[in-house]
Specification:
Layout: H1 3-16, H2 23-30, H3 34-47, E1 50-54, E2 60-64, H4 66-103, E3 108-112, H5 118-127, E4 131-135, E5 148-152, E6 166-168, H6 169-180
Parallel strand pairs: 3-4, 3-5, 5-6
Antiparallel strand pairs: 1-2
Helix pairs in contact: 1-3, 1-4, 2-3, 4-5
Length: 186
């Protein structure tokens, strides 16, 4: 974990815990040593992201400052933007699958397993006038899958070699992640 990530994680935990949280609790939650947590808390206070109030000789109260809240908001915004970009990419990839399925005269798409992208698949089936079917597990798949494009959810492994009408959502996601990682030469 990078120190800036740890700083923001600590700020987030303090912000979300209105009853107060101790250094020991923060260290356990974040997975850092007590000494490292203490050093990060001091650094956050020096940056003005955190206010420290001594309640008594044994207890200290931490409050995220307006500047700290601004840093958390920026982090959330960056995460939101990255998520939207990914959803757009997944939609475009699944859209091409749905268009190809319609062009090949498949009746519909069978989504096997759970998927965070099921709403996209269902929407694109409607758009391309394809039936949308779901099946919870890869075992005992229905025999009616002959004119359906089988789309394996993220929790299901890759299709058997030579399976013509089967595509893995995990491959789509992994191809996106490998493209978005910076190369060693950049």
């Amino acid at each position: 974990m990078h120190s800036s990530e740890a700083e923001l994680d600590i700020l987030e935990k303090i912000s979300s815990n209105h009853a107060g949280v101790s250094q020991r609790d923060l260290a356990r939650i974040i997975g850092l040593s007590l000494g490292m947590t203490n050093a990060i808390l001091k650094r956050l206070a020096q940056k003005g992201w955190l206010k420290v109030k001594k309640v008594n000789n044994r207890n200290i109260q931490y409050v995220v400052s307006p500047l700290g809240i601004q840093k958390l908001a920026r982090r959330s915004y960056r995460y939101f933007r990255r998520t939207i970009k990914n959803v757009v990419y997944y939609k475009e990839s699944i859209e091409s699958l749905a268009a190809e399925a319609a062009a090949r005269r498949y009746k519909g798409i069978l989504l096997v397993g759970k998927s965070d992208l099921d709403f996209i698949v269902e929407h694109l089936c409607l758009k391309h006038r394809l039936e949308f079917h779901r099946w919870e597990t890869a075992s005992r798949m229905p025999k009616t899958a002959d004119r359906l494009l089988v789309l394996l959810g993220e929790t299901i492994g890759d299709p058997e070699p030579g399976t013509a009408n089967c595509v893995s959502l995990r491959r789509i996601i992994m191809s996106r992640e490998s493209r978005s990682k910076p190369s060693a030469t950049s």
